[in-house]
Amino acid sequence: VQLQAFGGGSVQAGGSLELSCVASRDTSRFIIMGWYRQAPGKEREWIATIEGLDDDRNYADSVKGRFTISREDAKNTLYLEMNNLEPGDTAIYYCMVEDIGRRTYWGQGTLVTVSS
Predict the structure, then answer these.
(1) What is the secondary structure of the chain as a DSSP string?
(2) How far apart are CA 6 and CA 20, in angstroms?
(3) C-beta separation of 21 from 107 below 8 A
(4) Residue 51 vs residues 6, 41, 79: alpha-carbon distances, Å
(5) Which of 56, 78, 84, 94 could form a disulfide with 21 if both were Cys (CB 3.0 to 4.6 A apart)?
(6) Nearest 5°: phi and psi at 45?
(7) 71-105 pLDDT per residue, tens
(8) Where does residue 86 rank: exposed (0-12), middle (13-18), buried (19+ CB within 10 A)?
(9) Do 35 and 92 form a contact (C-beta atoms < 8 A)?
């Protein structure tokens, strides 16, 4: 499975961005899809996941209420809508998926820079 993330860029604090992650395979086969991020000098951290037949969504406390994860299986795409961005959101954002066999795949990352 190949994942390609798009949508990163530079914005000012309070701005918005939407990240997309396009999969090379039918996303309806994935049981978990999510986003992680890695800020400079820090470890990669979990941001949000969407999973199961009911599209159960979960978010890290740091982004809850500001970020929204969604999927569009017809386009094999995962999204992350990011609003009210803060300088602390500056990081490389990675998408990931987990298939029925519990194999995990990662995208190449897209850089988000938020200036104050």
Answers:
(1) --EEEE--EEEETT--EEEEEEESS-GGGEEEEEEEEE-TTS--EEEEEEETTTTEEEE-TTTTTTEEEEEEGGGTEEEEEE-S--GGG-EEEEEEEEETT--EEE---EEEEEE-
(2) 5
(3) yes
(4) 21, 29, 13
(5) 78
(6) -125, 150
(7) 999 999 999 999 999 999 999 999 999 999 999 99
(8) middle
(9) no
User: By the 8 A CB rule, do 38 and 17 touch?
Assistant: no
Tally of residues, the chain: 116
Q: Which tokens go with 58? A: 């979960």
> What average pLDDT does this structure show over 63-67?
98
State pLDDT tens for residues 10-45: 999 999 999 999 999 999 889 999 999 999 999 999
